[in-house]
Amino acid sequence: MMHITSLKSKTKHIPIATLADPPELYLPLYGYKGTMDLLVQPGETVKKYQPVAASEGVFAACVHAPVSGTIEGIEDINGQPHLKLINNFKDNEYELPSLNPDGLTNAQILSILKEYGIEGSGGARFPTHLKYDVEGRISTLIINGAECEPYLSADYALLKNELPALVKAIQLLQKVVRAQWVVIAIEKQHRELKKLLSPLLPVHAIETHLLPNEYPQGGELQLIKSVTGKELPKGSIPAQHGIMVSNVGTLWAVYNAFYGNKPYTDRVITLSGEKARHIGNYSVKVGTPVWFIMQELGMDWNPEQQTVILGGPMMGRAVHDARSPINKGTGGVLIMPQAKANDNNCIQCGYCADACPQRLMPMEFVRPEARADKERLLQLNLTDCIECGACAYICPSDVPLMKSIFTGKQTLQAS
Amino acid sequence: MNVNPYIKPRFNTTTAVMADVILALLPLVAVAYIAYGLQALLVIGTAVGTALVTDFVFSAVYVKKTTAVLDGSAVITGLLLAFTLSPATPWYVVAFGAFAAILFGKLLWGGLGKNRFNPALMGREFMAAFFPVMSSAAIWVTKSFINVKEIGFLGTNSYLATYTSGLLYKTTGALGEYSVAAIALGGLYLLIRRRISWHIPFALLAVFSTGFWLVNDGDDLKYSAAGVLLGALFMATDMPSSPNSPNGKLYYGGMIGLSAFAFILAGVRFEYMSFSILLLNGFTPKINEVFMPRAWGHKHDFKALAEKVFLLTLSIAGGVLALLSLHYYGLTSYVVYLYIVYIIFKFNFSFSDKISNPI
Ligand code: SF4
Ligand code: SF4
């Protein structure tokens, strides 16, 4: 692992502001697995918080209208289906049965997690109801407060400003998991939070754990190792080892669902980057297109001049479509200058291998990937790569390591 | 860029890596100048100049890149080559060495980073194969060129003072070997800047000195401490030709130390370092394979690993013996001739197709 300049101090102390509602929203219809079916018809008027699409099965997911308005239809953005919703700014609310969070059974909690569309907010968007369906086999509950991506400070802002709410969410989830040990893990660079968190220890039996400032400390496997000392292989299910990891953003969604009776329709993101203006932490509606965020904050959508990234700079995705929306897993929007890549040969410096948290040899993937040699790629444990981008970040020659990792994985899947 | 990551560390380019190495080597140029004056600069300048010109011309021809010369790697090759030479080496021999180092040592492999062997040492072997004078003792007679014989920082009145001044400055050996202190300083800089890791020099020096400690008559064996240090810090750590994983580096460094010691025991006078480094260069891909790091959450199969390491060590020992016999019968130049045929063949039938690949 390695150290990356965090650049969070730009935004971490800025309180969370609420961004205005956009005139049009694009709700992602794809979940952790599979696509959702529409529950409404194009042309139909929907109310705020009304479920508009859902999928069934193990990985069941659903999405709700964040505002009231008219469904326009399905649009393809970045190769994925999105439901376009035109805001009528009337804020007619959908009638949801009222909740008494303290009197719920475990089964009821799980079903609310499902019906309110709660998903992991760290990026992978794993359905939370599925994750917490564990029947008390958990000994350690880790709250992942390590936003290891540079620039992003949304989780930090939540921890700093909404701690009582997050504790309530933890207590609610604790009813289901009954873990003996609850830890909030934060990075050393945020040690000032510890003062805020430490009074929790006697009252709620929640501990804090300081993590080294290394990338990618927030990766689930790396986090589990730092907190518990257990090195779980990629692909293993932490719950089977008695460990549960939840993200700060997810807790916030849980709190809003149970104590605010609000489905997962907004989240906190960080807006930052070298070319961004009015940087800070913002609460935005799921489905808000980037063009609107930029316009609200006094910037122009101009793909020739800047790179707009959804997520963090290490693992996020550059978007070229102005309609690209915030989804439940998006932790930030970054406006960066266009980057120039070097055009050099690999000098075999080994920096990529040193930086790789999974202890792989990233430079070795390039050649077998080019000749689609599956056997060799498997031998090199390409499947263990967590796509954290550390190798490509550190490479002095800008060897297209991530490209060969993504294509290599596709090659492996195509068997 | 259209894939993540979208940020890069500042000042972390190939050129920056090369610039650090050049910076680390500059004190050695200064020491060489103090020792042999313009004669030293002539050798170093010829080596660096020829390396740059060769890199420019043949990169344009074979690698189809005219900017490759700017990355700084040719300067390093030229400097390192010069540092293994006697200040009395004729300039045209130096020029030939630098030319061969760049063309046969680097470009015909496909350019920067693709070479299997250390180009500077390769150049040195080419010189020895084509110019018999290189292997004669006469070339090391350099008294007439000496500029500053000794620097009396500490006086000469105690054993310790003489010994320490010997580390700071002496005038025997090759151009890069006049100051152990300057070599160590450069190495330290590279370690701090993380341009080399400690594994190779540490294992190399540890095994090498243990060898001498075990053999009691070590005092009678002739070797140059500065030469070994220079090799350990700057030659054995050459990025493309050395392994990448920490354990691989330890093994590789250790084996270089062991082979160098074996060569010295067997009476190889000057080329123990270049022989052992070049030999182990040849085993680098195999070492990378055997010492692949244990991926996260995986387990090592120690029995299989031990077997692989044993076989690998056996083949390296075979390599040492083979080189020794060739050296004994004065046949090492034939290895160079064979290499020329091999590399030309490989370039035309395989490497030239992959010129534009970054690896
Ligand atoms: S992207 Fe994959 S190969 Fe690269 S550093 Fe991360 S885990 Fe290692
Ligand atoms: S970091 Fe880049 S240049 Fe260095 S070994 Fe890895 S791929 Fe090659």
From TrEMBL, chain A:
Does Electron transport appear among the keywords? yes
Q: Where does [4Fe-4S] cluster 2 bind?
A: C356, C385, C388, C391
Q: Does the keyword Translocase apply?
A: yes
| Chief localisation class | membrane
Q: Which UniProt keywords apply?
A: 4Fe-4S, Cell membrane, Electron transport, Iron, Iron-sulfur, Membrane, Metal-binding, Repeat, Translocase, Transport
What does the UniProt record say this protein does? Answer: Part of a membrane-bound complex that couples electron transfer with translocation of ions across the membrane.
Record protein name field = Ion-translocating oxidoreductase complex subunit C
In its UniProt entry, the species of origin is given as Flavobacterium akiainvivens
TrEMBL record, chain B:
Q: Which InterPro entries match?
A: NqrB/RnfD (IPR004338)
Keywords (A to Z) from UniProt = Flavoprotein, FMN, Membrane, Phosphoprotein, Translocase, Transmembrane, Transmembrane helix, Transport
Q: Which Pfam families match?
A: NQR2_RnfD_RnfE
Q: Which GO terms describe its biological process?
A: transmembrane transport
Gene Ontology cellular-component terms for this entry are: plasma membrane
Transmembrane feature ranges: 12-34, 40-61, 68-85, 91-109, 121-141, 167-191, 198-215, 250-266, 309-328, 334-351
Q: What is this protein called?
A: Electron transporter
